[in-house]
Amino acid sequence: MSGEVTLLINPVAGRGRGRRAAEPVAGTLREAGIAVRVLVGLDADDALARAHEAVAAGTGALVALGGDGMSSLALRAVAGTATPLGLVGVGTGNDIARALGLPLRDPRAAARVIAEALKRGQPRAVDLGRAGGTWFGSVLATGFDSRVNDRANGMRWPRGGLRYDLAMVAELAALRPLPYRLRLDDGPWRELDATLVAVGNGPSYGGGMRICADADLGDGLLDVTVVGPCRRSTLLRVFPRVYRGTHLSHPVVTTHRARRVELASPGVTGYADGEPLGPLPLVAECVPGAVRVLTPGPA
Q: Domain named DAGKc: which ranges (predicted)?
């Protein structure tokens, strides 16, 4: 493994914040005596291929600049290897960086954390989820929230966050419980109707929505949040509580923990770290200590 650190950039993350963050991050690392190489991904596939190449070549660390999409790509490149990962959260969501206690939208502060962690030489080992052959760091979403993503991704207008707002309104109008089959570890299959089922390695998705608020990146388990059948008025009342994580105490919500979660529901797509995995059924597993992350403080 070399002493050179590789910066992986999404130039369009956070409306260009990823591109603008490259210079202060590289400068801060170089001031700390760390050699830096910069890679710019042309698209998701290209970024992942470049990241794999850097890890295979023995880079001293892979540092991803962007949001959860870029963080998720970088996780896939380093998972199961000895290469440590640094995250500079300058995207829209930043849920993976948030769960790790990293500075958000402050490139220099994030770079200082990375430099200090490299000098300590003790990266923190954290768990990852794996579903459909894909690693994820935060949450696997299914049901109402994944249907909002499906609808928004199929809309050509408007662009930006408003598209998701309109998609949510449309899905609220069509709200109905979905039939699920759920199995935890080696337990029995459960038949249930639910508005959504979320499987969390980390606590939040969507830019701070703490859907699996008690999820711990180091406990070797996945947290499962089930929102049962509910009316539109109930969902609208509960929704604001998700940002504080207090929705877990609502009677319509139940929670579980397991190492392995099997989910099936017809016509439902799974999204992990905000990226589509494909239709259910899916099997999600927790892989303890799958990635080594450069975080604040001692390991």
A: 1-135
With b for 16 or more beta-carbon neighbours within 10 A and e for fewer, the 46-57 pattern comes to ebbebbbebbee
| Category of 14 on φ-ψ map: left (φ > 0), alpha (ψ -120 to 50) or beta | left
> What does the CA dihedral 5, 133, 188, 215 come to, rounded to 10 degrees?
20
Same domain, 107 and 78: yes
Amino acid letter, 204: S
Beta-carbon contacts of 104 under 8 Å, excluding residues fewer than 6 positions away, are 89, 90, 94, 97, 98
Q: Report the predicted TM-score, pTM, of the whole model to 2 decimal places.
A: 0.92
The enclosing H or E element of 292 equals strand 282-293
- Do 250 and 236 form a contact (C-beta atoms < 8 A)? no
**Domain extent for 140:** 136-289
pLDDT single digits (tens) 212-234? 999 999 999 999 999 999 999 99
3-state secondary structure of 24: helix
